[in-house]
Amino acid sequence: MISSSHSPDAARGALAAAACYFLWGLFPIYWKQLAAIDATELIAHRHIWSLVFVLAVMRFGDGWSELRAALRSVAALKWHTASGVLLTVNWLVYVWGVNHGHVIETSLGYFLVPLVIVALGRFVLKERLRRLQWIAISCAAAGVVMLIWRVGQFPWIALTLAGTWSCYGLLRKQSPLGPLVGLGLETLLLAPLAVAFLGWKQHAGTGALGHVSAGMHVILLSAGVVTAVPLLLFAYGARRIRFATLGLLQYIAPTVQFALGVWVYLEAFSSERAAAFGFIWCGLALYTADNLWNQRRITAG
Q1: Which of 57, 202, 248, 262 could form a disulfide with 207 if both were Cys (CB 3.0 to 4.6 A apart)?
Q2: pLDDT tens for residues 105-140?
Q3: Which residue in 249, 232, 240 sits closest to 11, CA to CA?
């Protein structure tokens, strides 16, 4: 990773990471085009075409040998089966939420991710938290309580997305595989289930292939490219910029999703809901400030 934040390589890395998060933020637009197709079928297609695209990209590097070695490792198979299941649940809930009018809540899920990761670090990895981190988590918890109490809505979509993505990150932290090979292994391990499900749908005459418009076929079959391109940008950027910078850029995705939900899809956003989001955003601001201050202190030391 490049240490200087002013080097040309670091600038390209920051641009790649920002582009990755921006594209992730635009995902609701893509999935909305496929709203007529069942979310489970969409995720099965995403698995298959992501695998096809990732395997094709691997041919231009040493990914094939790394993937073959991972298939012979019991530990890699164990970790990536678990992470693959978490990723599948995350994708399924996200697509279902987007296509059922909950874009704002999906954005909330990804706003919560950094704070859930901090909480997992404390209660799972037994890491010590600084005072501002505790306050940040408390603010986010207060926002969730407000959603339940004042809005009368249990934010199960947001909490599921935040929980599955954070746990996915925790499992991937245990793996030595890079983003591309890791995604390839995860999708390969679950591909038989996806193929069987799609085969059953087609046999029953309820599958999308052959039953939707030509334009929708193109959009559906491009799921692999749509999934993998942002991931490749992320991998490029993450190796060239500081972790603190990457952490700040991650807010681009849920911010874009939130903007789409409010101003493009015109989802309801009451004052009570805004107050709850305010507590969560306050927690994120404190978390970010604490990270920046701690990074500066380490650098100065």
Answers
A1: 202
A2: 999 999 998 888 888 888 887 878 888 889 999 999
A3: 240
